[in-house]
Amino acid sequence: MIKSIYLSYFLDDKTPVYGGELNSFKVEKIKQICLGDTSNNKFFSFPNHIGTHIDFPAHFSNKGKSCSDYPASFWHFSKIGFLICNIEEIEKKAINLSKDIEILIIKTGFGNKRGKNEYWEKQPIIPSNLANFLKINFTKIRVIGFDLISLTSKLNREEGKKAHLDFLIYNDILVLEDM
Predict the structure, then answer these.
(1) Is the pTM of this model over 0.85?
(2) What Cα–Cα distance (Å) separates residue 108 from each residue in 27, 141, 149, 178?
(3) Cβ neighbours, 10 Å, residue 25
């Protein structure tokens, strides 16, 4: 029996947004059976940096790839690395993972603060040099995912910008945020 685990959150009006922006997720009922329409339909409006999502290179480069630039086969992962640790322990704990992982999922525990301002105001800083470490030690890695709202912490936005460039542009590792 295969065990399934949800890796993403459902979107709703309480979904946290980087920077704490309020009322970012909007749903408008545009057709309703109870009003005589033949079907129920909704219109959704939200920013691209909300909920569980992937940052693509185009997020930080005008010449970077976007979702449509990746073939379906890119999203098939046979070698998955999983760590339960805080940010400071990633390199030490990752050494024990198989060297041929294609995706690394990190559970820091900070996701327990989701729904509180602390989740977006005080998340740990992910160092930009982690991208180089991962690409050197795991040459097949394509995606890193974690339970933080962003690769950029509000505590050090410059390091966050550098981390985005190092992961997305220089090391070709996509970033899966807010898992």
Answers:
(1) yes
(2) 31, 19, 12, 11
(3) 17
